[in-house]
Design goal:
Elements: E1 12-15, H1 20-35, E2 40-45, H2 48-55, H3 57-60, H4 63-87, E3 93-98, H5 102-110, E4 115-119, H6 127-137, E5 141-145, E6 159-162, H7 167-183, E7 187-192, E8 199-202, E9 205-208, H8 211-232, E10 238-243, H9 247-255, E11 260-264, H10 279-286, E12 291-294
Parallel strand pairs: 1-2, 1-4, 2-3, 4-5, 6-7, 6-11, 7-10, 11-12
Antiparallel strand pairs: 5-12, 8-9
């Protein structure tokens, strides 16, 4: 994670666009900011390309139309500020308006944020590409707020983290322990690996592992990854779960019970070369609870 997350001035950043999904993300972000004594920064990016697809690129550049987009965005920000202020009276709130577009704005804001929050769905038909861009190219922790099967954003249950041994995975473990401690929740560490080939990586070299020893080797890997964090967070109750197939399905299954699923932005090893676009991408599109995608500090 980036160091700015731990600065007292680091804000919880949330993107809004006037949609019902954005309001759910706003309420989720507001509650986190309130509980952790953080500023809430509400961001809205003007999507010129979206309007251009309907009216033509030349017409979008007409000042009157740009003014209309700005007024709409300012109205969205004003409404969002009212919702957040009513939910958390006295919470420091700032707004950010940009013509750079929602994806670029949130990626830029994430560089100095405590965490960055975006809804899984929005007003634009192309909003999914914005979610993938922010989750894939943002900085630090990016939270995509998703609903459960009943249309609710779950606020109970454990924090679930995918453990895979990568650098991004280590950042995810750190964020997951921190989230579990802040929420007073248990932590479920999920390690899923393919049963073939039976090889692990040590010192950058692949080492063949007999099938009979694979389970014990994987358990030791998980124990090693968690040991230092369990010492740092002794009050967090940790449950370990080891599987030998389909990390996406396992994490999605756990998302139906969790209040938050945490994964690295990319990985290797147990998660079979996880890159954004596979495991993390599937979860931000299909999980049943909010998903935190953690980018390691560069």
């Amino acid at each position: 994670m980036n160091d700015s997350r731990y600065l007292a001035s680091a804000a919880v950043v949330v993107g809004v666009d006037g949609s019902a999904g954005a309001v759910r993300a706003l309420r989720w972000a507001t509650e986190v900011a309130r509980q952790r004594d953080r500023e809430l920064r509400i961001a809205c990016g003007i999507s010129v390309d979206e309007r251009g697809s309907a009216l033509g690129r030349f017409e979008v550049l007409v000042p009157a139309l740009l003014d209309e987009l700005r007024k709409d965005a300012l109205h969205t920000l004003s409404d969002a500020r009212v919702i957040a202020s009513e939910q958390a009276p006295g919470l420091p709130i700032s707004i950010q308006l940009s013509a750079a577009g929602p994806a670029r704005l949130l990626i830029e804001e994430s560089a100095d944020a405590y965490l960055t929050v975006i809804s899984a769905s929005g007003r634009s038909a192309h909003f999914g590409s914005t979610v993938r861009a922010v989750a894939g190219h943002g900085h630090g922790p990016i939270v995509v707020v998703r609903q459960d099967a009943d249309g609710q954003v779950r606020r109970t249950g454990p924090v679930v983290v995918g453990v895979d041994g990568s650098r991004a995975g280590e950042a995810a473990i750190a964020a997951a322990f921190d989230e579990a401690a802040e929420r007073g929740a248990g932590l479920v560490a999920v390690h899923a690996c393919n049963d073939l080939p039976f090889e692990r990586y040590a010192g950058g070299m692949a080492i063949a592992v007999p099938a009979s020893d694979l389970e014990e080797v994987e358990r030791l890997i998980v124990a090693e990854r968690l040991a230092g964090w369990q010492e740092k967070y002794p009050d967090v109750l940790v449950t370990r779960r080891l599987y030998f197939s389909d990390p996406v399905a396992r994490l999605q299954q756990w998302s139906s019970e969790a209040q938050l699923v945490v994964v690295g932005s990319h990985g290797r090893g147990g998660f079979g070369g996880m890159l954004f676009g596979s495991t993390a991408n599937d979860l931000v599109q299909h999980a049943y609870c909010p998903v935190m995608v953690v980018h390691p500090q560069l």
